[in-house]
Protein backbone atom coordinates (compact mmCIF):
# COMPACT_ATOMS: atom_id res chain seq x y z
CA UNK A 1 0.00 0.00 0.00
CA UNK A 2 1.08 3.59 -0.45
CA UNK A 3 2.83 5.16 2.48
CA UNK A 4 3.04 8.65 3.93
CA UNK A 5 6.13 10.39 5.25
CA UNK A 6 5.07 9.48 8.81
CA UNK A 7 5.48 5.73 9.47
CA UNK A 8 3.16 5.85 12.50
CA UNK A 9 0.41 7.45 10.42
CA UNK A 10 0.98 4.78 7.78
CA UNK A 11 0.69 2.02 10.38
CA UNK A 12 -2.46 3.59 11.78
CA UNK A 13 -4.06 3.84 8.35
CA UNK A 14 -3.25 0.18 7.70
CA UNK A 15 -4.75 -0.88 11.03
CA UNK A 16 -8.04 0.83 10.17
CA UNK A 17 -8.57 -1.94 7.64
CA UNK A 18 -9.17 -4.38 10.49
CA UNK A 19 -11.97 -2.31 12.06
CA UNK A 20 -15.61 -2.91 11.13
CA UNK A 21 -18.70 -0.86 11.86
CA UNK A 22 -20.12 -1.73 15.26
CA UNK A 23 -16.82 -3.03 16.68
CA UNK A 24 -15.60 -2.30 20.18
CA UNK A 25 -11.90 -1.49 19.77
CA UNK A 26 -9.21 -1.60 22.44
CA UNK A 27 -7.02 1.48 22.25
CA UNK A 28 -3.42 1.07 23.36
CA UNK A 29 -1.06 3.65 24.82
CA UNK A 30 2.02 5.31 23.38
CA UNK A 31 2.94 6.98 20.10
CA UNK A 32 1.78 4.27 17.69
CA UNK A 33 -1.49 3.83 19.55
CA UNK A 34 -1.99 7.60 19.61
CA UNK A 35 -1.61 7.73 15.84
CA UNK A 36 -4.24 5.00 15.54
CA UNK A 37 -6.64 6.89 17.84
CA UNK A 38 -6.35 9.96 15.60
CA UNK A 39 -6.90 7.90 12.44
CA UNK A 40 -9.88 6.11 13.97
CA UNK A 41 -11.38 9.42 15.11
CA UNK A 42 -11.23 10.71 11.54
CA UNK A 43 -13.22 7.69 10.41
CA UNK A 44 -15.71 8.23 13.23
CA UNK A 45 -16.24 11.80 12.05
CA UNK A 46 -16.96 10.36 8.60
CA UNK A 47 -19.71 8.17 10.09
CA UNK A 48 -18.02 4.94 11.26
CA UNK A 49 -19.86 3.62 14.34
CA UNK A 50 -17.45 2.16 16.89
CA UNK A 51 -16.90 2.27 20.63
CA UNK A 52 -13.58 1.88 22.42
CA UNK A 53 -11.94 0.68 25.62
CA UNK A 54 -8.84 2.67 26.57
CA UNK A 55 -5.72 1.25 28.23
CA UNK A 56 -4.75 4.50 29.94
CA UNK A 57 -6.28 7.72 31.18
CA UNK A 58 -4.21 9.62 28.63
CA UNK A 59 -5.59 7.55 25.76
CA UNK A 60 -9.13 7.88 27.11
CA UNK A 61 -8.81 11.68 27.24
CA UNK A 62 -7.46 11.85 23.70
CA UNK A 63 -10.19 9.57 22.34
CA UNK A 64 -12.99 11.52 24.04
CA UNK A 65 -11.58 14.84 22.83
CA UNK A 66 -11.62 13.47 19.27
CA UNK A 67 -15.18 12.15 19.50
CA UNK A 68 -14.68 8.42 20.15
CA UNK A 69 -17.11 6.90 22.66
CA UNK A 70 -15.26 5.23 25.56
CA UNK A 71 -16.82 2.25 27.34
CA UNK A 72 -15.65 -0.21 29.98
CA UNK A 73 -14.80 -3.88 30.09
CA UNK A 74 -18.47 -4.86 30.10
CA UNK A 75 -18.15 -4.62 26.31
CA UNK A 76 -16.90 -7.50 24.12
CA UNK A 77 -13.71 -6.21 22.51
CA UNK A 78 -13.23 -7.33 18.92
CA UNK A 79 -9.63 -6.18 18.56
CA UNK A 80 -7.04 -4.09 20.36
CA UNK A 81 -4.54 -1.96 18.45
CA UNK A 82 -1.41 -1.10 20.40
CA UNK A 83 2.31 -0.56 20.07
CA UNK A 84 5.31 -2.34 21.58
CA UNK A 85 8.85 -1.50 22.60
CA UNK A 86 10.36 -4.77 21.35
CA UNK A 87 9.09 -7.64 19.21
CA UNK A 88 11.01 -10.89 18.75
CA UNK A 89 10.72 -13.59 16.09
CA UNK A 90 8.00 -15.43 18.03
CA UNK A 91 6.01 -12.17 18.20
CA UNK A 92 6.56 -11.99 21.94
CA UNK A 93 6.77 -8.43 23.21
CA UNK A 94 8.20 -6.05 25.73
CA UNK A 95 5.74 -3.28 26.51
CA UNK A 96 5.31 -0.71 29.23
CA UNK A 97 7.83 2.02 28.51
CA UNK A 98 4.79 4.33 28.56
CA UNK A 99 3.74 3.00 31.95
CA UNK A 100 0.37 1.48 31.00
CA UNK A 101 1.37 -2.19 31.00
CA UNK A 102 -1.24 -3.51 33.47
CA UNK A 103 -4.25 -2.06 31.69
CA UNK A 104 -2.73 -2.97 28.33
CA UNK A 105 -2.53 -6.59 29.45
CA UNK A 106 -6.10 -6.63 30.76
CA UNK A 107 -7.51 -5.12 27.57
CA UNK A 108 -5.43 -7.48 25.40
CA UNK A 109 -6.75 -10.48 27.37
CA UNK A 110 -10.31 -9.24 26.94
CA UNK A 111 -9.89 -8.89 23.15
CA UNK A 112 -10.42 -11.44 20.44
CA UNK A 113 -7.29 -10.15 18.68
CA UNK A 114 -4.32 -7.98 19.60
CA UNK A 115 -2.73 -6.12 16.69
CA UNK A 116 0.65 -4.51 17.34
CA UNK A 117 2.00 -1.58 15.32
CA UNK A 118 5.78 -1.04 15.21
CA UNK A 119 8.50 0.44 13.10
CA UNK A 120 11.21 -1.94 12.00
CA UNK A 121 13.80 -0.91 14.61
CA UNK A 122 11.55 -2.45 17.29
CA UNK A 123 12.18 -5.93 15.85
CA UNK A 124 14.84 -7.84 17.81
CA UNK A 125 16.31 -11.30 17.79
CA UNK A 126 16.14 -11.51 21.59
CA UNK A 127 13.92 -9.56 23.97
CA UNK A 128 15.78 -7.23 26.29
CA UNK A 129 18.30 -5.98 23.75
CA UNK A 130 16.85 -2.50 23.08
CA UNK A 131 15.94 -1.21 26.51
CA UNK A 132 14.81 -1.98 30.05
CA UNK A 133 12.05 -4.32 31.17
CA UNK A 134 9.37 -2.44 33.14
CA UNK A 135 8.06 -4.06 36.32
CA UNK A 136 5.06 -2.49 38.09
CA UNK A 137 5.20 -2.68 41.88
CA UNK A 138 2.97 -1.69 44.81
CA UNK A 139 4.48 1.35 46.58
CA UNK A 140 4.42 -0.43 49.96
CA UNK A 141 6.57 -3.22 48.54
CA UNK A 142 9.22 -1.04 46.83
CA UNK A 143 12.18 -1.78 49.16
CA UNK A 144 11.44 -5.51 49.27
CA UNK A 145 10.84 -5.81 45.52
CA UNK A 146 14.00 -3.85 44.79
CA UNK A 147 16.05 -6.36 46.82
CA UNK A 148 14.43 -9.35 45.15
CA UNK A 149 14.93 -7.89 41.67
CA UNK A 150 18.57 -7.23 42.55
CA UNK A 151 18.85 -10.86 43.68
CA UNK A 152 17.80 -11.78 40.12
CA UNK A 153 20.60 -9.49 38.82
CA UNK A 154 18.08 -7.28 37.01
CA UNK A 155 19.57 -3.92 38.11
CA UNK A 156 16.21 -2.28 38.94
CA UNK A 157 15.99 1.51 38.65
CA UNK A 158 12.93 3.29 40.02
CA UNK A 159 11.33 5.26 37.19
CA UNK A 160 11.21 9.00 37.90
CA UNK A 161 9.18 11.86 36.46
CA UNK A 162 10.15 15.43 37.37
CA UNK A 163 12.54 13.96 39.96
CA UNK A 164 9.70 12.13 41.71
CA UNK A 165 8.65 8.48 41.38
CA UNK A 166 6.53 7.93 38.28
CA UNK A 167 3.02 6.85 39.34
CA UNK A 168 0.90 4.67 37.05
CA UNK A 169 -2.84 5.04 36.47
CA UNK A 170 -3.17 2.24 39.05
CA UNK A 171 -1.23 4.31 41.65
CA UNK A 172 1.77 1.99 41.54
CA UNK A 173 5.41 2.61 40.63
CA UNK A 174 7.69 1.08 38.01
CA UNK A 175 11.16 -0.39 38.19
CA UNK A 176 12.97 -0.36 34.85
CA UNK A 177 15.17 -3.45 34.89
CA UNK A 178 18.38 -3.76 32.89
CA UNK A 179 17.99 -7.41 31.95
CA UNK A 180 20.19 -7.50 28.88
CA UNK A 181 19.20 -10.16 26.33
CA UNK A 182 16.67 -12.50 27.96
CA UNK A 183 17.52 -16.14 27.31
CA UNK A 184 14.15 -17.52 28.48
CA UNK A 185 11.44 -14.86 28.81
CA UNK A 186 8.87 -17.30 30.21
CA UNK A 187 11.17 -18.36 33.04
CA UNK A 188 12.10 -14.77 33.86
CA UNK A 189 8.44 -13.76 33.82
CA UNK A 190 7.64 -16.52 36.31
CA UNK A 191 10.48 -15.52 38.64
CA UNK A 192 9.51 -11.85 38.68
CA UNK A 193 5.81 -12.51 39.15
CA UNK A 194 6.62 -14.77 42.11
CA UNK A 195 7.88 -11.73 44.07
CA UNK A 196 5.12 -10.52 46.43
CA UNK A 197 4.30 -6.91 45.62
CA UNK A 198 4.97 -7.22 41.89
CA UNK A 199 1.80 -6.34 39.98
CA UNK A 200 2.94 -7.06 36.42
CA UNK A 201 5.88 -7.07 34.04
CA UNK A 202 6.38 -5.73 30.53
CA UNK A 203 6.80 -9.23 29.09
CA UNK A 204 3.79 -9.91 26.85
CA UNK A 205 4.25 -13.51 25.76
CA UNK A 206 1.78 -15.03 23.35
CA UNK A 207 -0.63 -12.08 23.32
CA UNK A 208 -0.07 -10.62 19.83
CA UNK A 209 -2.01 -12.18 16.98
CA UNK A 210 -0.57 -9.89 14.31
CA UNK A 211 2.34 -7.43 14.18
CA UNK A 212 2.23 -4.75 11.49
CA UNK A 213 5.70 -3.39 10.67
CA UNK A 214 6.58 -0.16 8.89
CA UNK A 215 9.89 -0.92 7.18
CA UNK A 216 11.18 1.92 5.02
CA UNK A 217 8.51 2.60 2.39
CA UNK A 218 6.69 -0.69 2.91
CA UNK A 219 4.24 -2.27 5.34
CA UNK A 220 4.35 -5.95 6.19
CA UNK A 221 2.31 -8.19 8.44
CA UNK A 222 3.80 -10.82 10.76
CA UNK A 223 1.31 -13.46 11.91
CA UNK A 224 1.77 -15.53 15.03
CA UNK A 225 2.32 -19.20 14.34
CA UNK A 226 0.46 -21.74 16.41
CA UNK A 227 2.72 -23.22 19.09
Give a short summary of the structure.
The chain has 6 helices and 16 strands. With 227 residues, the chain is of the alpha/beta class. Strand 10 and strand 11 form a beta hairpin.
3D architecture notes:
This protein has six helices and 16 strands. With 227 residues, the chain is an alpha/beta fold. It has two domains: 7-122 and 205-223, Rossmann fold; 133-200, 2-Layer Sandwich (Alpha-Beta Plaits), CATH 3.30.70.260. The strands form four sheets. A seven-stranded mixed beta sheet has the order 3-2-1-4-7-15-16, sandwiched between helices. It has a four-stranded antiparallel beta sheet with strand order 9-12-8-13, with helices on one face. Helix 1 (7-15) crosses helix 2 (31-45). The radius of gyration is 17 Å and the shape is globular. The model has no long low-confidence stretch (mean pLDDT 96).
Amino acid sequence: MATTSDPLATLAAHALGFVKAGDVVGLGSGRAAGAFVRALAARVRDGLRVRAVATSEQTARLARELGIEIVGLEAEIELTVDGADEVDGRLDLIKGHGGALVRERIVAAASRRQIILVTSEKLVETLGTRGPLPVEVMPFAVPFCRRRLEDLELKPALRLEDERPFVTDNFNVIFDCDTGPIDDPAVLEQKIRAIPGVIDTGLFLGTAHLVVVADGDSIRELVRRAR
